[in-house]
Structures are given as C-alpha cells and as structure tokens.
Design a protein that fits this description.
With about 450 residues, this protein is of the alpha/beta class. Helix content is about 15%, strand content about 30%. It binds uridine-diphosphate-N-acetylglucosamine (UD1) and magnesium ion.
C-alpha cells in the first residue's frame, strides 16, 4: 500500500453486465483486447495500486468468469440478477471493512491507468467522494455531471432521466469513483430504484454526498481512451487499435524500429535489445524476447519465444514456444513448433518444419524438411526434402544426428534411429538402422541404364 494512503484500498470491479450488443455467447468482459480478456486488464491495473483486495462482481456467464480467470488473485462476488450499478457494488460491501477506501472500476473499461486512479484515492483518503469525469463532444448515453452556480458537483443524472437542458451538459460520469467505505455503505443503503430504468443507480450517491456536505472532487483522465468502454465489437476494435498504437509508441520510445507502427500487434509482452528492426504485419503473442540487432521480416507470428542477438527471421514464419540462438537464420516460410531449440548460427530455411527438436550450432536445414523429436548436432547439413519419420501411428520416437553428419536430399530417417557423428547419408536413402560414425550409408535402388529403350507411342 502506498504510504500516502493510511486506509486499505478495496477495488470493486463491476463486470456482471450482459453485453447484449456484442452478439456473443462469451461474457463481454472475457473478450480479448491485445490478447488479454477485458476484465483482466482492469484487474492488472487494480493490482498496480497494491490494494488490500480486488473484488470482481460477476453475473452474466455464470462461473465462466471465475473459472477462466482463476489464476488472478481476486475475490469473486456473484450478482445473479443485474439490478443496477448501485446494487452491484452493494454485493461486494459486506466483506469490506468500514475504514477502507473503495475504488469502483468497470470490467469493460480496460485501458484505465493506475496513475489516473491515484489522485481519486488521495481525495477519497481526505474524506471526499472522488469522481472521474470527462468532457465529450458527444455525451449521448452517459450520465451527466450536474454542478451548481459555484461549479460544485451536485449530482449525476442518467441520460434516460435527464431533462433536455441537462442533456446539453458535456461533462459525463465515467462511472469510476473512489470513496470511504463508511460513507458508501450508508449511501448504498439509501438507494431507491425510482428512476426510468427501475435500477439501483450507484450515481445517486453523488446527490446524497452533496446534500450531506461531503466534498465532491471531479478528476479527469489524461486521455479519453482511458475511460472508453466496450459495448460492441466496433468499440472493441477501436480500443484494440488504441491499445496497439500505445504499445507501438512505447516500443518506438525504447528504440525499436517498427517499419509501420500501424501494422504491428503485440498481444503479450515483448522484451527487446538494442537496434531491433520489425517489419510489417508481425504478431507477437505471449512472452517474446528479441536480442540486440534481431531483424524480424514481414508477416511473422512469434509466440512465447526467445530469439538471440543478430538473428534474422525472414518473412512468413511461425515460431512457437521455442528458443533461437544468436546469429541464426530462419525462414522465409519456416515453422518452428513448440519445444524446439535452434542453436546459434543455425539456418532453418524455407518450407521447413521443426518440432520439439534441438538443432546444434551452425547446422543447416535449408529446404522442405520435417525434423521432429530429434537431436541434431553441430555443423550438420540436412539436404532438401529430408523427413524424420517420428510417428509409427501410435507412438513418437526420437532421432539422433551426430555432429558434422551430412544427410543427402530426400532421405527418410525412420525413428528410433541414430546417425553417428561425421556420417554421410546418400540422397534418397531410407534409414531404418543406426548408422555408425564416419561411414557412408546408402539405401536406394541402383540406377539402371537401358539402351535403345523406346517410349510408348500414342495409338493412331
Ligand atoms: C453507467 C453510469 C453512467 C455512466 C456510464 C459510464 C449508473 C447508474 N450509470 O451507466 O452514469 O455515464 O456507466 O459508462 O451507474 N453492472 C453490473 N451489475 C449491474 C449493472 C451494471 O455489474 O447490475 C456493470 C456493467 O457490467 C458495466 C458497468 O456496471 O461494466 C456499468 O453498467 P452499464 O449498464 O453499462 O451502465 P450505464 O447505463 O452505461
Ligand atoms: Mg454502459
């Protein structure tokens, strides 16, 4: 907890809404933004504030929310019937100590930043009701902030309850607020559902605070996108672009060259060295680390991988749950599947698939090959069209290829099998028995020359 806030902070995240306009069977707050469920963004931001507790009020979608987000250290509060934002907060209050500060966030407002919330908590710690408000050119649909002649906030009126004069107000309620639990408990107990929507409005506490003479503070976020909510796929797509633009700006600031910041998607975390260059249409998922001077070509998908310094990934590769060493070359059109470790200076070329295999330093698999469940040593050359036949229809088997071995083009290595260090396998050989070190293994039909052979001619 921050030393400036003597009281414990309790965050209540409202996430029980149905999200009808998403036209989806998935609860709204589980839709991903930048690869992470909407509500998870809010949970992570809440946790940055080091609160005493984070409670998520859920309803629509049943247990899917707690089940999907079971790894998040939060408390789940059920609100089986959605009777309004006031009713939702009420569900979380019994577990909250009266001397704590309550911060209300929305599960469908994902881009709110911790630095915007801290002043609200500070004001609430001083005894005020702190609201986050914003001025919009088009305030339609939102609750409007009412102020008296001196400019003091006196209440919030919902769109559906507003007079035509009030509808002209452009300062709106974002819904995010902070206040002492003691005040909040008292005000919530007094809520009535006598309004256009027949709901218990959390916003009615503002007028209660004003009538009790409690100070009402209205803070504004630095950017409007921080308080933008998701109610439709259109708004989700809009926020996705904003989130990606922010991530791209952050990477540019850290010195990454993005050939087009508008054509880069980060759906996880990216750790980068110096002078990294990323071409267009690259998607980064999970945790990805790129060493100094790494170059990622166009149209690559990088998922949970580490790529060493000076390595070049040419266009159109998919690299998943794998490690690539320093100064290696991958692609174009390579697929590195989970559990692969490609050592430094190795070359993995076009139309090559590597699965759960190690490829040693300086080894080359340059064309049209499948290497699965294999250990390939150092400085091995694997010719075009080589296949490790790792699957017998029931079980997977291992292939071992020793250092400096050379495998000719179009070979099949039927696992389990090993090729010794320095051995050579002739082109078009099917290896079914272990090859000792240093030998030549050839297993193909010998070439015949038939002199004077006549091709069949077409019948008249
Ligand atoms: C609310 C505010 C409005 C504000 C707007 C900002 C009230 C009465 N009005 O209106 O002043 O301008 O948000 O977007 O608070 N929820 C629950 N349980 C419920 C009802 C809602 O968990 O019973 C959750 C929703 O999932 C959503 C949030 O609370 O995350 C807001 O609910 P919503 O119905 O969108 O409120 P608005 O009518 O938009
Ligand atoms: Mg809303």
């Amino acid at each position: 907890m921050s030393p400036s806030l003597p009281a414990a902070v309790e965050v209540v995240i409202l996430a029980a809404g149905k999200g009808t306009r998403m036209h989806s069977d998935i609860p709204k707050v589980l839709h991903p933004l930048a690869g992470t469920p909407l509500v998870q963004h809010v949970i992570l931001t809440a946790q940055e504030l080091e609160p005493h507790g984070v409670r998520v009020v859920y309803g629509h979608g049943g247990e899917l929310l707690p089940a999907t987000l079971c790894a998040s250290r939060v408390d789940w509060v059920a609100q089986p019937e959605q009777k309004g934002t006031g009713h939702a907060v009420q569900q979380a209050m019994p577990a909250i100590a009266p001397d704590s500060l309550v911060l209300v966030l929305y599960g469908d407002v994902p881009l709110i930043r911790a630095e915007t919330l801290r002043p609200l908590l500070k004001a609430a710690a001083g005894g005020a009701l702190a609201l986050l408000t914003v001025e919009l050119d088009d305030p339609r649909g939102y609750g409007r902030i009412l102020r008296d002649h001196s400019g003091a906030v006196t209440g919030v009126v919902e769109q559906k309850d507003a007079t035509s004069e009030q509808l002209g107000i452009r300062e709106i309620n974002t819904g995010i607020l902070a206040v002492g639990a003691l005040h909040l408990k008292r005000w919530l107990a007094g809520l009535k559902a006598d309004n256009a929507q027949g709901e218990y409005y959390l916003t009615d506490i503002v007028a209660m605070a004003a009538s009790e003479g409690v100070t009402i503070v209205a803070e504004q976020p630095r950017a409007v996108w921080e308080v933008m909510g998701v109610n439709s796929k259109g708004q989700l797509a809009e926020l996705e672009r904003i989130a990606q633009r922010n991530r791209a700006s952050d990477l540019l600031e850290r010195g990454v060259t993005l050939m087009d910041p508008g054509r880069f998607d980060l759906r996880g975390t990216l750790t980068v060295g110096r002078d990294v260059i990323i071409d267009v249409n690259v998607i980064v998922e999970g945790h990805v680390t790129l060493g100094d001077r790494v170059r990622i070509g166009a149209n690559n998908v990088l998922h949970n991988c580490t790529i060493g310094a000076d390595t070049i990934v040419h266009p159109n590769c998919v690299i998943e749950d794998s490690t690539i060493g320093d100064d290696a070359r991958v692609g174009p059109f390579a697929r590195i599947r989970p559990g692969s470790r490609i050592a430094g200076q190795a070359h993995i070329g076009n139309f090559v698939e590597i699965k759960k295999s190690e490829v040693g330093e300086g080894s080359k698999v340059n064309h049209l090959s499948y290497i699965g469940d294999s250990s390939v040593g150092r400085h091995v050359n694997i010719g075009a069209g080589t296949i490790t036949a790792n699957y017998d229809g029931a079980n997977k088997h291992h292939t071992v290829i020793g250092d400096n071995a050379s495998i000719g083009s179009d070979c099949t290595l039927v696992a389990p099998v090993s090729v010794g260090a320095g051995a050579t396998v002739g082109a078009n050989t099917t290896i079914t028995e272990d090859v000792p070190p240093g030998v030549l293994a050839v297993g193909r039909v010998r070439q015949k020359i038939i002199e004077g052979w006549k091709r069949p001619a077409k019948k008249p």
